[in-house]
Each structure stands twice: as C-alpha cells, then as structure tokens.
Design brief:
197 residues; alpha+beta; 60s Ribosomal Protein L30, Chain: A; 2 domains; 3-stranded antiparallel sheet
C-alpha cells in the first residue's frame, strides 16, 4: 500500500487495508446493492475484501444493510456473485478489445507461437475449450518465456472480442495493456476460476 493512500475496512472481516485492494459496493437509487469496480459511482461505499469468503459472509450476515443503514435490495450472495462476475468479465473484455484496436493483439496458433519465441508476448489467452494438447503446448511455451496464461474465455468469445471468427489462442504483446488486463484478471481470480496462472 502506498503511503497516504485511503484505507477502508471490509464489512465482513473488518480488516483495514488500502481502498484499492478492496471491492466497493454502492446503492442504486432503488437501494439495490451494486458493485462499483472503478470506485467512481456516487454515494456511500461499502467495501469487501477481494475474496469469495468475505463476500459470502457479508451477504449471509446482512452486513450491507448495516453498512448502508437500512434495508437494501439484491444483497444476497446468489445475486451479488453473478453480477460481480459479469462486471469483471466485461472489464477484462473491454481492455482486450481496446488492446486489439490498438494493434497490440495477435491471434492464431502460428502467429502467437512466433511471438512467444521472439519474447514479445506479455499475456496469453488460451480458449477454455481448446484441446488438451493445444493448451499444454502453448502453456509450456508461455512458461518458458515467463508469460502468464488465462483460460477465461472460450473460442467463440475470444473471436467475438477481436471481431473475428473463433480464436483458440490470443496474445497481448508487451504494452501498457498487459498490466491493466493482468490487474483485472488477478482481481477476477481472487473470486472466480479462470484468472492468470
């Protein structure tokens, strides 16, 4: 945590930490609890550690109602977890699409393998529905280059994000996009399967 950065406590475990390491939730006008992943929505915020246990406990113990001082809607774990997953996937998708528009994405087995061998890949997406042999081949090549891999999207989803047909292997080349996408993937991986490894 940087010196002087704002601190908040998790409404579940009460641990105090830097605001940027927590997930913020706010109330919509109808008093529905919604995640605020960018931390920019107006109103009072309630914060939860970046892990599923704290989110589950906060929902089970009605900590959102306590934090927002009154009855709230949509604060059940079965509603919050899917909403959080959807919003996180949207943010990762958005960054990947931006990287593609900026010309910092390579797709296709041969092209990606060539970039891996040249050491110019910063992050590798392997489609979750690729064959085991393909997954192992690219994961091994990425490991040799110390490149993180992600299995978050299937071939159809990866292709759609790039405005193309199905894509099994997609690489983000070394660029400023890599850190942004990795940060989002790491946060996603704290809650759900499919982050970077």
């Amino acid at each position: 945590m940087k010196d002087g950065s704002p601190e908040r406590s998790c409404i579940s475990c009460r641990r105090v930490q830097g605001k940027e390491t927590l997930v913020r939730f706010v109330l919509a006008p109808d008093r529905t609890v919604v995640p605020d992943l960018q931390g920019k929505l107006p109103g009072r915020g309630a914060y939860v550690c970046q892990n599923m246990n704290c989110l589950r406990e906060a929902a089970a113990k009605r900590q959102f109602a306590r934090a927002f001082k009154g009855e709230v809607r949509g604060s059940g774990f079965d509603l919050l977890a899917p909403m959080l997953e959807h919003l996180m996937r949207e943010r990762i998708s958005g960054y990947l699409s931006l990287a593609n528009k900026a010309g910092k994405v390579v797709s296709g087995s041969d092209a990606v393998m060539d970039y891996l061998h040249r050491g110019t890949v910063g992050l590798l997406f392997i489609a979750s529905d690729c064959s085991d042999a393909t997954r192992q081949r690219f994961a091994s090549a990425a490991e040799r280059q110390a490149v993180a891999c992600c299995l978050l999207f299937d071939q159809h989803q990866l292709g759609s994000l790039l405005g193309k047909e199905q894509r099994g292997i997609v690489a983000v080349t070394d660029s400023g996009f890599v850190d942004s996408i990795r940060n989002e993937l790491n946060r996603y991986g704290n809650f759900f399967e499919g982050g970077v490894w």
